[in-house]
Write a structure and sequence with these properties.
The chain is built from five helices and no strands. It is mainly alpha-helical. Helix 2 crosses helix 4. The protein is globular and about 30 Å long. The two termini are about 15 Å apart.
Amino acid sequence: MDYNYLGREGRIMEKLTERELEVLQLVKSGYENNEIAKKIQVSRHTVKAHIKSIINKTLTRKRACLVCMAIKHGLLN
């Protein structure tokens, strides 16, 4: 998907992996880290690493900011 039309934030979101987008969708749906881990069959530590990576790539500070930015730009269903 080409996010360039979204400007800087879109270009940042374009750098997210498919797995990171999947984790972000689950965060948006209200899942906790341990629930996400069970759902995608990885460890809780791996989920935390994905979330940390997303936060670093998007230059946000909190989970809620991630979700707000993704929803604002229509990146999550």
